[in-house]
Hints:
Helices cover 73% and strands 0% of the residues.
Amino acid sequence: MNVPDSVAAPSPFLHPSEASKRLLPWLVAVAFFMESLDTTILNTAVPAISSALKVAPLSMKAVLASYTLSLAVFIPISGWMADRFGTRRVFASAIGLFTLGSFLCGISTDIHVLVACRVLQGCGGAMMVPVGRLTLVRTFAKSDLLRTMSFVAIPALVAPMLGPIAGGLIVGYLHWRFIFFLNLPIGLAGLLMVYLHLPDYREKNIHPLDIVGLILFGAGVALLSYVLEIFGEHALSSREISGLLVLSLVLLAGYGLHAKSPAYPLLELSLFRIRTFRASVSGSFFTRLGIGGVPFLLPLLYQVGLGFTPIQSGLLIMPQAVAAMSMKLVMPRLLSFFGYRGVLISNTVILGFLLLLFATIGVHTPVWVIVLQAFSYGAFTSLQYTSMNTLVYADITEEETSNASSIASTMQQMSISFGVAAAGLATAFFIPDSVRSNPAGMIHGIHEAFLVLGGLTIASTIVFRSLKRGDGDAVNQQKILHPGG
């Protein structure tokens, strides 16, 4: 079944022209790039910002965590907002909020103000990803969705690789405030593109917002994210952290019970009864627990363990971006030949073994071997992310797209945060305080962490075993065009 090019409510921007349809993936990709880059480019500037604001570097973790918390809380209402106010207005507001928040962050002179502005940024970022994805799903037929999603997924892979290099160059040659000001011209150009080309989809009959569900789920996810951010620090006692963890789980369990009562819950958990949706969302979550910490571990290995500079470290990660862009050319054929089940099971195992190979990188490893491993990892990561992201919509009806997009984006954001936390915990477990400044001890600890994460990734293949042959054909262009292939 193809996704229709319209929804029920009339709108002057309901039927995009062919020119707008060609530009729409670029517009959404730029928004994704801006949001993804912001989450990584700031890490490089933490020492410079903490020095400028006269706070301890550890205090800067609140600046990083506040953005993640804001995303986790506001993503679940993005689908309802798009249905209620229209994709065009919500997407434009998201870019506007993100751009305004970036400007305010850039002129902040106090860490508390900076944290508040990061929350504002997160409000915009929370709407950009799911509403942009929702607009694509409603604009393009399912047979075209794989090609479109593979294009839009590239910025999310490229931005984390460019972030460390861009951050180092900006801090070294300009000023840390330009990290935030960089978003201003991109945001303004995005607003103009939205005005000219973004279609306006909305629903005719809007159900009421689940306020109780928002409080339970939002508070539970925010609290759980906060606990993971501070886990391993000494700011709170183990008893206090355990209490917060239990409270967050109680809130999330409370939402699970509450979601069975209202006619229109915040997140429609009944969608998990659909096999392809359940496998793609849960598989994405567990897979990212293993591979989500790689952007954190590799710079640590290269810089602290092997002694590379930040720019050299970034250049060693760059082949991942080249591979990610190259993979999109062969991705439809791979999915057509092997099917979603075959690709996701085999590809997840390959990713796990690539993580195990990262544990072999040492001081005597030739640079060409590191580059080859990075290229291979980038290619298979690109295939994994795009396959999981498109499979979400394989058996989703038009009426369910908003909820499906919100759930997928929420779980993805949670898994990214949890993946970094898992990598940090694994590394801290294998690196005692006595060897943290010892490169050899650091290399050994990171190697052990890669072994753990590689094993976790391989184990996550069990989720995709529930898929059946033929699942995902609706979003595979090759299968649509050649049913017997």
